[in-house]
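USER: Write out one fold?

ASSISTANT:
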Amino acid sequence: MKEKLKIGFSALVGVALAGLLALYPLDYYIMKPGGAYEIGQFVAVADGDIDDEGTMNLMTIAMMQASPLTYALSYVLPNRELLKTEEVRYEDEDDEAYNIRQMKLMTDSQFNAKYVAFGLAGKDVDVTSNGIFVLNVLRESAADGILQPGDEIIQIAGRTIETTEDVQAVLRNREQGEQIVLSISRGSKVLEETVTLKHLPGEERVGVGITYAGNQTIDTTPEVTMKADDIGGPSAGLMFTLEIYNQLVEEDITKGYHVAGTGEMLMDGTVGRIGGVDYKVIAADRDNMDIFFVPDDVITDEMREFDATVQSNYEEALRTAKHIDTDMKIIPVKTVQDALHYLDSLPPKE
């Protein structure tokens, strides 16, 4: 009987230890290749042209918090990269704030994609400013315990807020201890909260103590429906733009090719630098893409001073493509027009 109890106890300890190794969160994240996803399943232009032979595809990377087990496996399994938490999340940013920031980056990329694509197609859009969006609340700041990530600030001290510059203007020359009223939208509620201004953590400036971004909406005719709530970050912006434009025009700009790519879409049509491009190249090759668009960004002296080994997205993508010996074409683009010009120059795929 005692021997059976010992065996049972040992088994219980073993299960508990295995669970600890598999589930205990470490101060690291693991990044690895994700996959290619046809954008047509996320984007629909009302009465748009969808009878195309080829496809536009966005690329993802997989990111998860490391446990002792997955940390150890990352040194054995291929195409894994360990990142310290501070390389992924901002200071004072918890999981909720991180996820909210990633979703905000995604919604902003969708906004820019619509704005740029409709401009390329010669169609008008209607843009509305809706205050600012709270990304994070700094610990021990004036807003700590009052505001939350995801809040939308509509007014500050009675002044309607439309741009991020409005925030700086209304807070300029305010003093420590001064109270101001904020009108905020939280979910379906509109609230008024009073904050007592304090010095920002580690600074001489007085402020509310939040990180924030502009908050705009865009109305288009025809209407564009986008469903990509499970994908965070701004890096799908270029491909969203190309897909919307492809549905707005009659011709099939894919020419029958499976087109993938990555890059932030800025409102002026510039394609911005992103992270994890090497893993996206690996995933695109694995999913049999023909073409991969990548930002042709410029490495500044300041970036080299911070990291002497830094490469442009295009250099990194080209190096990875050579390493995996892919037949996929790696095409550098500085603007969305560069991508369109390249596609226009292609013969139809046989």
